[in-house]
Amino acid sequence: MPSEVTTLSVNDKRRIEMANEIVSNAPPGEIQEVYNDLRQFLEDDESFTVLSASMFAEHNKRNFVPVLVEGIEKPVIITPFNVLNNGRIYDPRSKQSFEFDHVKLEAFDRASCPNADVEELESRRLSLQESVDAYISKYFMHGNGSVYSYAEPECDEKKLLICIVNQQNQPNNFLNGHWQSQFAVQFPKEDELQIDGWIQLKVHYYEDGNVQLFSKKDVNRTIPFTNEATFANDVVKIVQEEEENFQRNVDQSRRLMSEFNFKGLRRQLPVTRSKIDWSKMVSYRVATELKPQTP
Prior knowledge:
Strand content: 25-35%
Number of strands: 10
Radius of gyration: 26 Å
Low-confidence stretches: 1-9
CATH architecture of the largest domain: Alpha-Beta Complex
Number of domains: 3
Strand order of the largest sheet: 6-7-8-9-10
Mean pLDDT: 84
CATH topology of the largest domain: Aspartate Aminotransferase, domain 1
Distance between the termini: 63 Å
Number of helices: 7
Order of helices and strands: HHHHEEEEEHEEEEEHH
């Protein structure tokens, strides 16, 4: 009931802070619904309207939101690593950039942008992108992935960044899910690769309730750098190993939670381990009462 909530004596600054926190924790695939509710909560507050673009931009970058852009074959992921200094979004596949409305999720003003990558890493980036594409095509139904080259501005450190996202929204089933991972590939020595990153899963189920799952795992691996020919496949092999281990651990935790944790919160089922159909029980009772009694 927004009209009742807005009568609380909360100053404008605190209300905006609350709105920012709500947006940052919005469940996957539900950012627009959150935005509409916040507009009612803040009664279309002008300060919120001004700040909404920056809040949504942070949300989109943090969640690797994929967007379709006219003239670009594959979806472009919005990440912290492909936002140019002028705010435009860069696509390393097509070597193009575009303006992006983070609230409406609309891309426009597409243009060529050929010099945004780190030139020394481009051949490795291309081979790694090819291997990542093959991996995603095989294991993710709705997956998208991009590889970026990145150079630290204050030092000579250069690295490749892999960003993977798989999101499936099923509002008719009251279910949304979001798989996301990030891996930084660095070259500390001539014969060594350092792979650091994380994998996370967010699920929201909201039929007759509100259940959210959040799980995250950090990754830190060091492997030999044998040669350029096997470089990309070696890196993706580590990505696959870590993501498969993460998925197995999540499945195991879910089973244990269902068998032990939730068991203590609910009434024990009958020996048949099936729910009682109370409508049938009533009919059985009525039938018994109407049955002729033997003299």
